[in-house]
Fold DNA/pantothenate metabolism flavoprotein C-terminal domain-containing protein.
Amino acid sequence: MEEWEQYFLRNPAPQGFNASCDQLKKFCGQHAGHHPIALVTSGGTTVPLERNTVRFVDNFSAGTRGAASTEYFLAQGYAVIFLHREKSVVPFFRHLNPSFLLNSLQENSEGGLQLLPQHSSQVYPIWKNYQRIMSEERLLFLTFTSLSDYLWLLRATTQYLQQLAPSSLLYLAAAVSDFYIPQDQMAEHKIQSASGPLTVTLQLVPKMLSPLVSLWGPDLFVASFKLETDSEKLIEKATGALKRYKHKLVIGNLLQTRRTEVTLVAEEQSHVVKLTQLQQQEGVEIEKFIVEEVCGCHKKFT
Ligand code: PMT
């Protein structure tokens, strides 16, 4: 048995998994042949240290890349499955933080609430766009917290897309752990500090891109992200991932410069996307250009 199969045998499906599968089946069936479909994964996976989880190891990601990219895919006419870490950054809502919202409201003469006129011009276009997308049912929100939740939902989504809409796009921006503690080696209850310093041994997570590309979704267009902190390693690692998994695109980024520069690595060529100083000052988001490039490649492929 392959290591990834053992992983799924040893780690049970998340709560509500069947309901998520029903939503996925409906969404894919509804949009197949009408809109191009993209799966966008976003946010970091957690690795619990205890079954009744008090402590966990986290992967770095706020979810900004995935949330912003989702808005740009929707603008390009895609229907989007947004598989994201619970409480991470979410499309549309990301523009409105709670303190801004509370400070933007006033009581009207009927005792109801209304937006202060000076804030309407900022909120209205976001609200209008969100309402339109939701009325077209073009955005499906699915959430995960742990690595295991994520992998179960990733596999299910990939398989439904392969079955119902095989020309779809996967845009894997979530930050996925390489290490974990198998269920049967995990403490049941909160680990006690009375027994002294803690030594934890984490096992390697099988690289799921391998079965994803070759078995679960062989006809899908897969773009994965590669995160490094050492600029010397980035291109080598991104190129290596492309050769190893044989998918279509690796988008390499450095933790330090991820908001302003990425490198798109494809089989024939690699290509840097970088924001100018002026674009940065004007608040242009790099995701706009990444998504345009990815959509261009996806269109050529289909
Ligand atoms: O969310 P933000 O704060 O905006 O940050 C965005 C980002 C930096 C997180 C994003 O741009 C990014 O780089 N995401 C990928 C991070 C990551 O997991 O990189 P990696 O080098 O660890 O993994 C590379 C690929 O292998 C990923 O596509 C991952 O899905 C895959 N993988 C990883 C672990 C694993 N066990 N199996 C896998 O298949």
Remarks:
- The chain has a mean pLDDT of 96.
